[in-house]
Fold:
Amino acid sequence: MILRSQSSVVPSSFEEFLRWEAVDGFKYEWNDGEIIRFEKMKKKHLFIIRKLQQLFFRTIAFSKGAALIMEQDVILSGIQMRRPDLAFFTGSQIDDSVISDKEPIPEFLIEVISPSDDAEKVEEKLAEYFQSTVKVVWHIYPDNEVVYVYTSRKNVKICTENDICSASPVLPDFELTAKELFSLSPSN
Structure:
């Protein structure tokens, strides 16, 4: 894939990539020298993200300064920068990142999977997450109304209908049924 930005200068190093601002409406990740382009979020995905944010605002962690941040740069290693759809950061991770050069790695991530996402790339990213300090990953498939809740690459719960999707052990009070997540009625 050939990438072009408004300045037509495509980054050739990780450091350049971290400073690069793409202006073409796509989001990008870096993986060991490869720039990966993703489509912008679909409207149904945005609806799901909002529901998840509203649920998060009710958690104890939120009341203690934590945040569930959309499309935050997550530097997993010196050669990998991923941009999950939602990333959970504790209040202390956020505070420490201001006074330290150390990049915080969230323990809980959510990816909303699109039909255009490459299955091999999705699996590769999951492996990278668990090779770092991530403890829980949700893969949400809106079109199929299913959530895969991973607590390791081998440990997965598949949630449909009334199955409870939980972010435990990271966020024990962050849970809902798949049916609630995919219901198109607005949350209160």
In short: Residues 3 and 59 are 40 Å apart (CA to CA). The helical segments are 14-19, 43-56, 60-63, 91-99, 119-131, 178-182. Confidence is low (pLDDT under 50) at residues 1-7. The chain has six helices and twelve strands.
